[in-house]
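Q: Give me the 3D complex with magnesium ion.
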Amino acid sequence: MIPKKALFLKRGYSFRHPSPIEVSRLNQRLKYPYEFIGEILITQDQIEERVSEIGAQITNDYQNSEKLMLLGLLRGSVMLMTDLMRSIRRPMTMDFMLVSSYAGSESTGFVRIDSDHKSSIAGWDVIIVDDIVDTGVTLHTIKKLLQDRNPRSLKICSLLDKTARHKVDLSIDYCGFEIPDYFVVGYGLDIDEKGRNLPYIASVDLEKYHQLYG
Ligand code: IMP
Ligand code: MG
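A: Here is the predicted complex, encoded as structure tokens.
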């Protein structure tokens, strides 16, 4: 059982459970037809604040780059991509890859590229943008593949990181929040395509989910 008090994390930002008041306010305001939601872990406001901090950091780090490209991994990165690009004050382009490795709440450990990026990344400063790092296998595989395509630089940005679950050595250059080992949905993340439209990050009550969907 993970203690509910604030978890202080290594890079100076913290994940904290929203207060019961914040959660009940959210529940009243936002009614979504997902019965399998466990608890709200990260609110819309917390995400907004952290994403603009990352945008400011990227703006600063890429001051000398005229060839910045955000490369989003679909479909989980959609919300992060659109919010992040609005807070980057540099010229930039974007592209996407459609990648999958999960079935339900289980990683298959096998990364499938369903659709590749369309623009060349050779000579570009590329930031791969993903929703969550779990075992790290997906981003490790994609990073290796993209490195061979000769970008000028290649970094990783992920909204969430389940550090306790890493199976490969992967450094995340821009990380939103480190979270405990929950299966989560919202802000682009899904369980079997459900839950992506929630504007916050919530845990899934897996027992309830399996009662509902088998
Ligand atoms: P990894 O290869 O094990 O790091 O898995 C990464 C991918 O698995 C992510 O890009 C997500 O699509 C999916 N994933 C991992 N954990 C979760 C979760 O808690 N909720 C939703 N999707 C997840
Ligand atoms: Mg994903």
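A quick observation: Residues 73, 76, 130-131 surround magnesium ion (ligand 2) (CB under 6 Å).
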